[in-house]
Each structure stands twice: as C-alpha cells, then as structure tokens.
Design a protein that fits this description.
Layout (H helix, E strand, L loop, with lengths): L1 E2 L4 H6 L6 H21 L19 H11 L4 H7 L12 H17 L3 E5 L3 H10 L9 E5 L25 H10 L11 H14 L4 E3 L9 E3 L2 H9 L5 H22 L3 H10 L25 E11 L7 E6 L6 E5 L7 H4 L3 E5 L5 E3 L2 E3 L2 E2 L1 E3 L6 E3 L31 H6 L2 E3 L5 E3 L2 E2 L16 E2 L1
Parallel strand pairs: 1-2, 2-3
Antiparallel strand pairs: 4-5, 6-7, 6-9, 7-8, 9-12, 10-11, 13-14, 13-18, 15-16, 16-17
Helix pairs in contact: 2-10, 2-11, 3-5, 4-5, 4-6, 5-6, 7-10, 8-10
C-alpha cells in the first residue's frame, strides 16, 4: 500500500485555499482523472483504493496523536520540514507548522508501507522517519521523483496556468502552452521541455525512438533513441527550440488523448466545472476577465521605412524620423542613435518599429514608436536591426508561435514590453529571436548586423 496524495484535512490546514465543499469536489475530480490516466497506460485498477483525510483525521485517536506529536516536535523541526511545501513567512500561521506532522501521521493511519512524492517532500519524509518512532510507530519507505521545471523555466505552479499542462487540456491548449514555453537555444539546465522528455516521454516511448518531424529544407526528420542524444543535440543547437516544441507537443497530446476523450462524458465535464469553477469578480458574480499572458504577440512590431530623418533640434544624441508603417501618414519617431549610426545609413532604410507604445514627449517632440536595435552588454555598440529587402511597410513582425493580435496600446504601468524584451536576443547566426524562435516577415528573418547574443531593445 502507498500514500501518494495529500489528504483533505491536511490540504485545508495549509492556508484555507478552498472551502470544504470545493475540496470534496476536487477529491472526486482527482480520483476520476487519476483513474483515467492509469487506464490510458493499461494499469489495472482492481487494487486501487482512494481514501480522503476526513475518513480518519476527525477520529479521537488521530486527534490525540496530533497532540502527542505537538508535545515532542520543536518549532525548528516543524519549520524545516515544511520549508519547501509551506509558504515561508516571518510570522507563519500555526496550520503551516502542523502540516508536516499531519502528513507524517497519515502514514500510520492509512496503514501504508511507503509514501511517494516529489523531491520537494524530502524534508517531510525525514521528519516522519524521525518522529513516528517517537510515538511508537514504525518508519515507512519513501520514494521520490525529480521535480520537473515549469514551462516558464521556473517551478511549476498551480497559480500560473502557462507553467503546466493539465491532464484534460485539449490538443490546441497543449500546443499553445508549449509554443509559449521558455526554451532558450542551447540551454539544457532550466528547460522544462527537456525535463519532461527525460522523465515522461522517453519512459512512455519504451523501445521507440524520440522523433522530430521537420521539412526537408529545415534538415528533415531526425530521431533519438536515448535522452542523452536528444540533450546533446539541443545543447549543440543541432536542433532548435521549435523542433523540440513541436515534438513534445505531439507526444503530450498522444499521452493525453485517452484522458481527454474520457472527460468528454457529460458527468465528468460537470464534475470538472464544479471542482474548478471559472473565477468570478467581487461584484455581480460575473466571470472575472482573465489576464492575457505576457508574450511578444502583445507587442505590435511592424516593418517601417524611414522616409525622412534629421537631427533633433534640442538634443545632440537624438534623431527625428518620419517612418512609413503602413498607415495613412508616416509616424514621427525619436531615436537615440546619433552617437551610433550615421544619418545616411538610416535614410530610406527598412526598420523594425514597435507601434503600440504610449506616445512619449522627447525633448519637446512627441514620439509615436520605437526603433528596435541590437546592443552589446555595455551599450557601446548599437545596431539597427536589419529587415529583409522586399518586406512591405506595415507588415507585422512576429514569430511562428506568437501570432495573436497585439494590444491596441501597451499599458506602461504593467511593463509588458520590458518583460518581453528579456527574451529577445540575437542567435549565433544573427537571427533575432524571442524565446528561441526567429522573428520574421513574410520574406525572411530579422537580423542583427553583427552582434551575437545581443540584447534587443
């Protein structure tokens, strides 16, 4: 027998994240989705039994053991045990200190031989091994698996939908999340897609090789029989982020297909909507607007053609440009390029222009956009990005995966462009990329003239 999920009372104790009624519905949802997942892998369910915390945690014996445990556990040990699973604050709630003890006692009251969890549970497991014998109970075996980074490159979080794949996500949602995932070229350390490939996809494939489907002009199909081969190919940039993303999305949808199909049943759809209802606003009970994810699709970057340029009358470092961005009249744009780029170089040039920033006064002249440039680390060299000849003014510049409509105007208080800019850089072959994907027009990629791994701003 094995304990592998948090009991209802224990979950409630960590911070009242959900009311009791909702917790009970979620327990039913977890049971349904776990069974669907196991069935999809042909795991027999005859001996599987689900037990909720309320089945035993409200008993007299359990309550007395909580008191007994609290009389021998120090504040230091309770804090240390919960360090990776309980939110750490200067003045913690008592519930957070009780939680490791409740989880330890679950082993005894469930009568299990072992407990399974992620490596973030290791301190609670050590706590249980130390304190259960103090109460006269035996130690249990503890199994742990690695923690896979979230799709954003940080820890997977239930509060960040884009950091995780849900078991009942449809193929379109999986594809969208994978396309937005952090997947820096050559980065094999904080790469959630590679970790998922190692710990989920390769074991699922068994003797089958990991296949990447590509067009002949992009190198053609390629396969990797072992994870280390895939990892090395990614590290050396023999395969690109989009190659990996497409393959991972295909395998995840293959894995989830039977589960998604089972949850098309009317009763399971209802259970899912009750367990995870749409968020509501404080007024009127209407569904709250979901904040759109921050990515480059929100930024309106267009091809521009400089039709007029001259020095700013009141600033030695600034140019005043008139730029055709496909509108009725050219936009006035101020750029700080006079110390870096000769005026004659910019006259008539095709450039990349951010068109949905809030207009800003720059030394008495209002600027209605920003030229994108590549810059080295100390900002001693700045180059205007090179737009391929034949691109038409007004054409949108974006990447293959981020094609949603941009915001009409970016809210400067939310720092959207600043957050996007962190993932903009130039690759080894000088292509300007966002999260590893090239930015391009219909004619070809946007390039940095000479700077590799440059910041794009």
């Amino acid at each position: 027998s094995l304990r592998s999920s948090k009991a209802v009372v224990s979950t409630q104790s960590t911070g009242m994240k959900a009311p009791w009624e909702l917790l009970q519905l979620r327990a039913k949802y977890y049971e349904a989705v776990i069974k669907a997942m196991l069935r999809s892998l042909d795991v027999p369910l005859e001996k599987l039994r689900f037990v909720t915390g309320t089945d035993y945690q409200l008993s007299r014996e359990y309550t007395l053991d909580v008191y007994r445990l609290s009389s021998v556990v120090t504040d230091h040990d309770a804090r240390k045990a919960g360090a990776e699973v309980v939110k750490q604050v200067a003045h913690p709630l008592l519930s957070g200190l009780l939680y490791p003890g409740l989880q330890a006692l679950d082993e005894e009251y469930l009568g299990v031989d072992a407990q399974f969890g992620g490596v973030d549970q290791r301190k609670i497991f050590m706590f249980a091994e130390k304190y259960l014998p103090v109460l006269g109970y035996k130690k249990r075996i503890h199994f742990m698996n690695p923690m896979i980074p979230g799709l954003t490159g940080d820890k997977m979080s239930s509060s960040d939908p884009d950091s995780k794949i849900d078991l009942i996500d449809p193929p379109s949602a999986v594809k969208k999340k994978i396309n937005k995932a952090f997947c820096e070229p050559g980065n094999v350390e904080n790469n959630g897609l590679l970790s998922f490939s190692q710990y989920v996809i390769f074991p699922y494939l068994g003797a089958r090789a990991f296949e990447i489907k590509r067009k002949p002009e992009h190198g053609g199909d390629i396969s990797y029989p072992a994870f280390e081969d895939l990892k090395e190919a990614y590290r050396t940039e023999a395969i690109y982020p989009l190659d990996l993303k497409n393959a991972v999305a295909t395998y995840i949808n293959e894995l989830l297909g039977p589960i998604v199909k089972e949850f098309q049943r009317k009763e399971l759809k209802k259970l899912s909507s009750l367990a995870y209802p749409a968020p509501t606003s404080a007024k009127g009970g209407k569904a709250a607007a979901v904040e759109r994810a921050v990515d480059i699709s929100r930024v309106d970057i267009r091809v521009g053609k400089i039709v007029e340029i001259g020095p700013h009358p009141d600033a030695d470092s600034l140019y005043v440009e008139k730029i055709d961005v496909g509108e009725a009249e050219p936009r006035t744009v101020i750029s700080g390029l006079r110390n870096f780029v000769a005026q004659e170089t910019l006259e008539g040039a095709l450039v990349a222009v951010v068109c949905n920033l809030k207009p800003a006064n720059m030394r008495g002249i209002k600027s209605h956009g920003m030229l994108l440039c590549a810059s080295d680390k100390d900002h001693s060299t700045v180059e205007v990005l090179r737009v391929p000849e034949g691109s038409k003014p007004g054409e949108r510049i974006t990447s293959e995966s981020f094609t949603e409509s941009p915001d009409p105007q970016l809210n400067p208080k939310k720092k959207i462009f600043e957050k996007v800019q962190v993932d903009l850089t130039s690759s080894a072959n000088l292509e300007v990329t966002y999260k590893g994907e090239p930015l391009r027009t219909s004619v070809g990629p946007i390039l940095a003239p000479s700077l590799v791994n440059a910041a794009i701003r």
